[in-house]
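Dear colleagues,

I hope this message finds you well. In preparation for our joint manuscript, I am sending the Alpha-1,4 glucan phosphorylase (Prunus armeniaca) sequence together with its predicted structure, so that both groups work from identical material. I would be grateful if you could confirm receipt.
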Amino acid sequence: MRLSTWYPHPVPSKSEKSRKSLFPTITVSHSQTHCDCTQSSSFFFFHLQTPKLSLLESLSTCECDPSKSPHSTMSTLSSRLFTITDQSKLASSSSTFLFPLFPSHSRSFSRSSRSSILYGRTHVAKPIRASASQLPSAASSVTVENSESESDPSGTLFVIRARNRIGLLQVITGVFKVLGLHVEKATVEFEGDFFVKRFFVTDSHGAQIADPDSLDRIKKALTDAIEDGGTVSMGPTSPTTRGVMVRRPGSGLGMSLGSDSAKAERMFRLMDGFLKNDSISLQQDILRHVEYTVARSRFNFDDFEAYQALAHSVRDRLIERSHDTQLYFKRKDPKRVYFLSFEYLMGRSLSNSVINLGIRDQYADALSQLGFEFEVLAEQEGDAALGNGGLARLSACQMDSMATLDYPAWGYGLRYEYGLFRQVILDGFQHEQPDFWLNFGNPWETERVHVTYPVKFYGVVEEENLNGEKCNVWIPGEVVEAVAYDNPIPGYGTRNTITLRLWAGKPSDQHDMEAYNTGDYINAVVCRQKAENISSVLYPDDRSFQGKELRLKQQYFFVSASIQDIIRRFKEAHSNFDEFPEKVALQLNDTHPSLAIAEVMRVLVDKEHLGWNKAWDIACKIFSFTIHAVIAEGLEKIPVDLLGSLLPRHLQIIYEINFKFVEELKKRIGLDYNRLSRMSIIEEGAVKSIRMANLAIVCSHTVNGVSKVHSELLKAKLFKDFYELWPQKFQCKTNGVTQRRWIVVSNPSLCALISKWLGTEAWIRDVDLLTGLRAYAADPDLQQEWMMVSLDAMFDVQTKRIHEYKRQLLNILGIIHRYDCIKNMEKSQRSKVVPRVCIIGGKAAPGYEIAKKIIKLCHAVAEKINNDTDVGDLLKLVFIPDYNVSVAELVIPGADLSQHISTAGHEASGTGSMKFLMNGCLLLATEDGSTVEIVEEIGADNLFLFGAKIHEVPKLREEGSPKMPLQCARVIRMVRDGYFGFKDYFESLCDTVDGGKDFYLLGSDFESYLEAQAAADKAFADPNKWTQMSILSTAGSGRFSSDRTIRDYAEKTWGIEPCRFPSDG
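The corresponding structure tokens are as follows:
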């Protein structure tokens, strides 16, 4: 067990210079007696206090007996009281307190009445209980006095004389702790059956206590605590008496003990410390979970079972931090942001969690002693399949930043059972299989069976009279229960741990039981399947009516449960909805959660009976909206008939919102019917629809794009009418990614190198410090360390969702051109070719045939090139199947060149480029999305730009593509002629480029693309230049951290402030 002295004294900071304050003291007292030989002898008394017992040892010394000399007596006593064990293990402990023990036996002792023993090394000690005959009698009397004549420069002296009993010293030090006082030094003397305890105490500023009233209060508190048997209202156990941080029930967490304070106090004392993170404690936790959570023998378990136990052990630490964070938020009652996103790509949680908790090395050490490797167990974890592409990963990065920056935040989403799909490549063709990511459970989540909300569908709306006023009552035709699953999100360098709450669909107990009770078992099973289907699959195929309905069900299920949860939390502390905008900010991440606006209006008007105008005023103050679409075709629309059937009350509300908005708009712009039609929430046409983006803009107080280019497109084209009406609403929030995931977790070698050259790890939280690398970009020593991987071949990577506008086809055509050039070279010329390994990865949507053909073409070209002995190692092409976050963590750190070659004006932001940039990868890119801002930050000389500009694209399309360059025509002809096989299959793919149908401008940009590739080859041939460009890329990546994005949201959109949980618990 960890043993601490009764004397509390924290480890001093490095800035403390006084050796006097470095270590605490413990005093040995003795009295003079005579032994049988009439020689003078001494009787030594030692007292030791632990959280569980009070120890007293005594030994006599005699000058006539060498075995009873003071020296030998001290040696004997030291060996009797303490058994020093395995100091090396303690060295890895995270404890922040020193525990003074007896020094080596060679130390001499004076024969004064008090001998101070100083010891400055940390040990683990095993106590030996004193015999009953050595303990004083139970009766005791108490006197407390302040002796000014014996005051010490280190503090005010309190002298306490009392009969000893178990726990007495713990009570005394607990009183000092509760009163905010510091014990600078303490001594203990023995007088017959009494102990005299002397404490030199200072106030919270390190000064002596001179105020008479303060002294009286302290003396009274000590007297009361000692006479009352040790009860201190705030919990007397100090952190040092346990050797761990204490979780107190007092003001830190704002927890009221209530009427049954004794019971509450007992519960806190039973679990008053945070879980320990030393090697032995971690091993015990892991084995406990092997035995009791995984239900395996601790003598026989494999890597996966070890991972499960390890994950639960880490989750225990996340949960205690999460609980304390939420209690602290509850006490402080800050304004909170609620982040509504339809998808999240969290990746693996283990490595990220232990790094953010600061205990990665401790776990690695603990596992190695159990015979496991941390890296091997981390590979056992699968990716949580809760999203698809950049939007989902962006949401995950933003949650990490919210936690790290201490913002009071909640994330909400859906707990998809199967996620998107698992990509399997057979004979070069993509096949989709369900991603059963929950087959073995998810150790990171906690099912909150007590947090459930009814979600209604279908039915009718009826009018009823309530207190003489008409009100609408929605009588549903179907009710489903939303069950909460909580996932902790730890911050880095902080104890704050926020929550991502995901909802899963379950059948309503009432309807389920009614079906069973009436014998309609089939209907009961069908109802259960319908309920569970709501959260089964991410983005069901919406080409059919059933698919459209299921997708709408998902969206409303998600927002209804979330809004109910948010309002429930608000009403726990507030009764007046006028305060709602002061305590709640709702962020809509794209149009998927836009139904939350109608749901908030329904709850405020129909359930809380606020009245329409007041409810609308509140709604307009709490919502903000982030748009990720670039073109009008990407904006979500819901057929009116479908919405009216599934959510009849919400359709009424949206119609009412639109009516009031259009009437107000007429007053502002007049009867400009074309503009009124464009801005209306209701789109007229063959299929009348609800424009969800228009609804979100009308209600939100802030609307933002996700890059400068994107934001300008919104204002100039996509929502020009709204911008002219409300210019103050529109903002720019350039997306970012978290450096903790994309450098610290995925590239630890680079992380260590950056910290070494910057001389600090502070950049992990303050990423702007990366600019300090610019001063060393030309330093040969840094360049040498930067080039740890051989530059014999360039790793050229393009990994993202397969889509025509992302132009993977342009990349493949460029690879074919390179291959053709190499084939036609003389052998002497080939020696000048820069070897390339081209890597492509990404998924195509199941119904997107052109994208699937691009994947097949990639495999057909790879098979040809990789087996051509003439080309050899000069060119290779690899397709990575089932690309996800974990694969990205392997690919991105190893990339030399990354291609971001979307047609200009089609990429809203593009966070992939930011991840590669942070890892020192050079970019080959068009001026699209965030690339423009990257150029501003690192300079155009440090990346390879090509292609038409955004303003040139519309004109090129209007004029039609000019004559296709010969190089492009040649490679297209090779594909058409069946050089790579599947001639007929690729015909339609070639048609998208050839024959004047080149909508995404592959032909127009082809020559420029080849020039950029040639520039990349030339730079790569100069290792020093390439390395300098790489260093400058990393140095300029700080601007593209999600920390900056979230701080911008917090200050300019949400109006929230950090709420940091105190580090001392």
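For the figure legend, we might mention the following. The chain is about 40% helix and 20% strand. The two ends are 22 Å apart (CA to CA).

With kind regards,
E.M.
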